[in-house]
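Input (structure):
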C-alpha cells in the first residue's frame, strides 16, 4: 500500500526551491487515494511555487485546506481530468480555493465533476465574501479559465467580479441552459471588459441572451451543438466579433441556418445587423438599410479626406509594421505537422508557421533575435511553464513533420552546441551540471537549460518534433536541434510553439513572436549596420546554405511573409491552422496584416 506521507517529488522541490511542479496523475494516484483524495499537506510548504499541474488523477476529490494562503505566488494552476466533485474546490473560509490567489493568471479545471463554483470564483456571494460586490477581486490577474467538461448548470455575476481581467472563458461540455445568463445580468455593462473568447459548445443551451452585446472585447463565440432556436440580433453589436460558431442548433430561421452551416461569419453578422430576413425581426432595420449605410460610409470618408485626417491616417499606416499572409491554397509546398496520439498526455498543443524574408545578416541582428526569444520565454511563456518557442532554419527541414512522444532511452537529439545523445542521458548530464553550478556559485538558482529540467519530472515519454528523415529537430521544453539552428545567413524560418496547458496560449505566444520579428526586421533594415561577427555570435556562423543576391534585394523592399501551417492528426484531419482569420488580431493595432 502506498505511503501517503512519502512524497519524494515534493522533497526535491522544497530542497531545490522550485518554482514549477508537475505531478503526473498515474504516478501519484495511489498516494492521493491513501491520503483521503486530497493534495498532500507537504505541498503547502512550497511558498515559492509559481506553476502547479496535477492531471489525470481520478482519486483527487478535494484540494485540501489552505492552498490559496500557502501558495501566494502561484500564477498557473492546472488540475485537468481529475475527480474533483461538487465540493472539491472548497467553501468560503474552508479548504481548497476558499481564499484569493492574487497572482493566478491561468486556471484549468477541465474534465472534473464540478457542479458549482467555489465562493472565490463567484459560486456563492456573501456580504463579506472575497468576490462580494465592492470587495477586492479574488483573482485580479486571472486571464484564462477552463471549465470544460464539468457539470455546471449556471454561472453568476460573482465570476465576473472575482476575475475582472478574464480574457478566455471555456465552458463547453457542461449543463448550462442559458448564456450569458446570470454571468451578465441586465444592466451590468461593465463586467468582463476584456473577455475575447467565450466557448460554450455541447451544453444544452436553450437561450442566448441579448446581454451578450455587453462584451465589448469579444472576438470568438462558440455555442455549437446546443438547443438554440434563435440567435439574438444583439450578437452583431459586439464590435470586435470575428468568429462565431452556431452549428449544431435547430434554428427556426432556415436562411440563417444555411449561413451558419457554411461558416460565413461576416454574412451572419450582417444578416443579424439588419434584423434577419427582410429587416422584419429584432431591430427592425428598413429594407434599404444596406444602401443607406453604404452612402453614410462614403460621406464619412469624404469628410475625413476634406478635413485632412485622411493624410494623417496614410502617414500612420506607412509607419506601421507590415506582414503578408500566404494561405495554404496559394502555397505549392506548405509545411504540415502531423500529431501522434502519443503526445496527448505529455504536451498536447502545438502551433507552427513559416516566416520568410527575415534579415539576420546585418550587425547584431541575430543577437537581437535570440535575445528577444529569451525575453519572451521569461515573460509571456512564464519561464517556459506556459509555452516554449523553437525556431529553425527552414532550408534544413524536411517535411512533413511529426509531433510525437518517445521514451527517454530511445529519443535521440543533437542539442544546440552538443553532440547527439539520448534524451535520458542529456537530462542526467544537465542534472549533474546543475549540481555543479550550485556548488560553484553557492546558490540554489541555476542558469541555461538546467532551470527547465523540472518541467520533465515524472514524464514517462518526452515530447519531440521529428522531420521526414527521422531527425529530431526539437525537444520541448528543453532545446532545439543543432541540425536546424538559426544562423546569420538564415532568412526563412520555421517557428513552433508548444504547450501542455492551452492551444490559445500557443497562438498568443506566436502572435507576439511574429510582432517582435517584424519590429526587429524593420529596425535592421532602417539601421544599416555593417556585417560583423561578435564573439557571442561566432558559434552560430557557417557557410551560407542558400545565398541569393536577388532574394536579399527583395527582402529590403518587402514585408515579412507568414505562411500558414496545418496541424493535422494521423488521418489528416485538421486540428489547427495558423495563422487563421482570428489570429494576429490582438497585435493588429501595431501590425498591418495583408491577408
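Output (sequence):
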Amino acid at each position: 500500500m502506498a505511503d501517503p506521507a512519502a512524497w519524494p517529488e515534493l522533497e526535491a522541490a522544497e530542497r531545490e526551491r522550485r518554482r514549477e511542479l508537475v505531478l503526473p496523475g498515474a504516478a501519484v494516484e495511489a498516494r492521493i487515494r491513501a491520503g483521503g483524495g486530497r493534495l498532500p499537506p507537504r505541498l503547502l510548504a512550497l511558498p515559492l511555487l509559481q506553476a502547479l499541474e496535477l492531471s489525470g488523477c481520478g482519486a483527487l476529490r478535494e484540494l485540501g485546506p489552505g492552498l490559496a494562503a500557502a501558495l501566494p505566488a502561484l500564477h498557473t494552476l492546472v488540475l485537468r481530468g481529475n475527480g474533483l466533485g461538487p465540493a472539491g474546490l472548497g467553501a468560503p473560509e474552508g479548504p481548497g480555493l476558499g481564499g484569493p490567489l492574487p497572482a493566478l493568471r491561468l486556471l484549468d479545471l477541465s474534465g472534473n465533476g464540478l457542479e458549482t463554483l467555489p465562493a472565490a470564483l463567484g459560486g456563492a456571494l456573501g456580504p463579506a465574501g472575497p468576490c462580494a460586490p465592492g470587495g477586492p477581486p479574488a483573482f485580479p490577474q486571472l486571464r484564462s479559465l477552463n471549465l470544460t467538461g464539468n457539470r455546471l448548470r449556471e454561472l453568476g455575476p460573482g465570476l465576473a467580479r472575482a476575475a475582472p481581467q478574464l480574457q478566455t472563458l471555456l465552458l463547453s461540455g457542461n449543463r448550462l441552459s442559458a448564456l450569458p445568463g446570470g454571468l451578465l445580468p441586465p444592466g451590468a455593462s461593465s463586467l468582463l471588459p476584456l473577455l475575447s473568447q467565450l466557448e460554450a459548445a455541447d451544453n444544452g443551451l436553450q437561450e442566448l441572451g441579448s446581454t451578450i452585446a455587453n462584451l465589448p472585447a469579444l472576438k470568438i463565440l462558440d455555442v455549437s451543438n446546443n438547443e438554440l432556436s434563435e440567435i439574438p440580433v444583439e450578437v452583431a453589436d459586439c464590435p470586435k466579433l470575428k468568429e462565431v460558431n452556431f452549428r449544431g442548433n435547430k434554428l427556426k430561421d432556415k436562411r440563417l441556418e444555411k449561413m451558419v452551416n457554411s461558416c460565413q461569419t461576416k454574412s451572419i453578422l450582417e444578416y443579424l445587423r439588419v434584423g434577419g430576413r427582410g429587416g422584419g425581426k429584432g431591430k427592425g432595420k428598413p429594407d434599404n438599410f444596406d444602401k443607406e449605410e453604404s452612402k453614410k460610409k462614403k460621406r464619412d470618408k469624404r469628410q475625413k479626406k476634406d478635413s485632412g485626417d485622411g493624410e494623417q491616417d496614410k502617414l500612420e499606416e506607412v509607419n506601421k509594421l507590415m506582414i503578408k499572409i500566404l494561405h495554404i491554397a496559394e502555397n505549392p509546398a506548405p509545411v504540415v505537422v502531423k500529431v501522434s496520439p502519443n503526445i496527448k498526455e505529455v504536451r498536447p498543443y502545438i502551433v507552427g508557421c513559416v516566416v520568410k524574408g527575415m534579415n539576420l545578416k546585418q550587425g547584431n541582428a541575430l543577437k537581437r533575435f535570440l535575445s528577444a526569444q529569451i525575453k519572451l520565454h521569461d515573460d509571456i511563456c512564464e519561464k517556459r511553464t506556459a509555452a516554449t518557442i523553437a525556431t529553425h532554419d527552414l532550408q534544413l527541414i524536411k517535411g512533413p513533420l511529426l509531433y510525437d512522444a518517445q521514451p527517454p532511452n530511445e529519443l535521440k537529439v543533437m542539442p544546440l552546441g552538443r553532440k547527439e545523445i539520448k534524451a535520458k542521458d542529456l537530462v542526467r548530464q544537465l542534472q549533474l551540471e546543475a549540481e555543479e553550478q550550485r556548488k560553484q556559485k553557492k546558490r540554489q538558482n541555476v542558469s541555461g537549460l538546467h532551470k527547465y529540467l523540472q518541467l520533465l519530472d515524472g514524464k514517462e515519454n518526452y515530447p519531440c518534433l521529428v522531420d521526414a528523415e527521422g531527425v529530431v529537430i526539437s525537444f520541448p521544453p528543453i532545446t532545439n536541434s543543432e541540425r536546424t539552428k538559426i544562423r546569420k545567413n538564415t532568412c526563412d524560418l520555421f517557428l513552433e510553439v508548444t504547450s501542455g496547458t492551452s492551444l490559445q496560449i500557443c497562438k498568443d505566444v506566436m502572435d507576439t513572436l511574429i510582432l517582435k520579428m517584424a519590429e526587429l526586421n524593420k529596425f535592421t533594415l532602417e539601421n544599416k549596420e555593417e556585417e560583423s561577427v561578435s564573439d557571442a555570435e561566432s558559434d552560430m556562423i557557417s557557410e551560407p546554405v542558400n545565398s541569393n543576391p536577388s532574394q536579399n534585394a527583395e527582402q529590403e523592399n518587402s514585408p515579412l511573409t507568414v505562411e500558414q501551417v496545418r496541424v493535422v492528426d494521423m488521418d489528416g484531419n485538421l486540428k489547427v491552422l495558423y495563422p487563421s482569420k482570428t489570429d494576429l488580431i490582438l497585435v493588429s493595432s501595431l501590425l498591418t496584416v495583408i491577408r
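Notes: The longest strand covers residues 560-569. The two ends are 60 Å apart (CA to CA).
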